[in-house]
Amino acid sequence: MVMMKRVETYRMNIIPPGELFGEDFVSDTLYKMWPIEKEYGKGPVLYWFPRKRDIEVMRDFSRGVSEGKDEPFLLDAGGGNGFLSYLLAMEGLKVVSLDPNRELVEKAKRTYAHKNLSFEIGTLEEAKDEFKKEGKRPDIIVSSWMPYEVNLTPDIHEIRPRGIIYAKEAGGATGVPGEWELRSLIRTYVDSILKHCNKRDMRELSRHTGLKSKEILSIIKQEGGRDSEEIVHELVRKRKIPLSFETGDYESILEIEGPCYHDIRDLLRVLKGKGGYLCTPPQNGNRLEFQKRKDIPYFRISIPENSGSYPWENALKELVSEYSSGGMRGHLMSPEE
Fold first, then answer.
1. E strand or H helix at 117, and its extent?
2. Looking at CB atoms within 10 Å, which of 54, 80, 143, 265 has the fewest?
3. What are phi and psi of 163, to 5 degrees?
4. First and final C-alpha spacing in the chain
5. Burial of 145 (C-beta count, 10 Å sphere; 0-12/13-18/19+)
6. The model's pTM
7. Residue 117 is part of a domain; what is its CATH number?
8. Does any domain span residue 5?
9. Cβ count within 10 A of residue 196
10. CA-to-CA distance for 202 and 149, rounded, in angstroms?
11. Are residue 93 and residue 187 in the same domain, yes or no?
């Protein structure tokens, strides 16, 4: 479907879990329970450790927003190692896992073969153009851990899926989630344009603001001249595209705490002295947000109470319990740390 025109690695999707949890936890617990090559285990869903409950909510939302389709078409944008895509395919969804990293995709194909799952190499921007040519679009787009200062929301909105699922960090380390982050991003391109008149920077500035090059140049070259901060302020004020996660023609119908966040947080605190580190402060917890297009009838999503659990959920709970009550107690950090 999509050919790779440029390599644009979704960095948040390829953090080795060994850097997050410590090699002992990763090799002894994760890799013995799931068919992942040890040297390959990368991806945000390993950070999350998806719970069965979360996957079932994503499945039920996908079916609800597609109004009864037997196999809703879901695009996992920035699918990384394909783990999340595989879990969703196992729930009966027709899933395409899209990522620009060719090596990652080839390994994902070998690791997660499933009749409902296919893999493509490319970026969301390229997929958007391909969907236009083919005259079709996915029912749902999943964006998990949108890279910091990368805004995929405009491309998602242009594709116009019936529903969107965002996995994100509430504190702002994913995407371009606020005006301050947008200002910082635009300032980088403006400073470069003022110094070098780089065409690539102009294209990126146009992409992040929705303004045409002529409109940007008119703001930069207004009579009397402007300093860079005035230019940045005007570009932010006149932008025509949404920030990451802004709703636009969509509406948010559910937001829940991200997968295993508290267990992961507690375990990372315990492991801090053994090679792990606390990546996400408590106030910045992982979130799952579900948005439907406004013209789609409202539907109710129930949160499963007895959905069972994956093997890694049980292992994680056992480790947290063991370390919290046993000899590792002295290594626990206070919330302020």
1. strand 117-121
2. 265
3. -145, 155
4. 47
5. buried
6. 0.76
7. 3.40.50.150
8. no
9. 10
10. 16
11. no
Calpha distance 43→16 (Å, rounded):
7
For β-strands 286-293 and 250-257, DSSP reports them as antiparallel
Q: What are 195's two structure tokens? A: 């110094």
Please write the tens of the pLDDT for every residue from 136-170. Answer: 899 999 998 888 778 899 999 999 999 999 988 76
Same domain, 164 and 23: yes
Short-list 180, 167, 156, 165, CA closest to 242: 156
CA separation for the pair 171, 159 (Å, rounded): 27
Phi, psi torsion values for 275, nearest 5 degrees: 110, -15
Residue whose tokens read 């439907």: 292
Residues 201 and 258 in one domain: no
**DSSP H helices in the chain:** 17-21, 23-25, 44-48, 52-65, 83-89, 102-111, 124-134, 153-159, 179-196, 199-209, 213-220, 228-238, 261-271, 311-325
Same domain for 206 and 288, yes or no, is no
Q: Which domain holds residue 294?
A: 11-175+246-331
Same domain for 183 and 318, yes or no, is no
Question: 26 with 153, same domain?
Answer: yes
Give per-residue pLDDT as tens, 104-114. 888 888 878 89
Name the token pair of 95. Answer: 């899933």
Are both 132 and 226 inside the same structural domain? no
The 3-state DSSP class for residue 185 equals helix
Q: What is the C-alpha separation between 166 and 174, in angstroms, rounded?
A: 10
The list of the chain residues with pLDDT below 70 reads 1-49, 170-173, 223-226, 258-285, 311-337
- Among 84, 100, 46, smallest CA distance to 264 is for 46
Q: Total structural domains in the chain? A: 2
Identify the burial level of 58 via C-beta atoms within 10 angstroms of its C-beta, where 0-12 means exposed, 13-18 middle and 19 or more buried: buried
Domain check: are 267 and 160 in the same one?
A: yes
Query: Model confidence over 200-235: pLDDT tens digits?
Result: 888 888 888 889 988 988 888 775 566 788 889 999
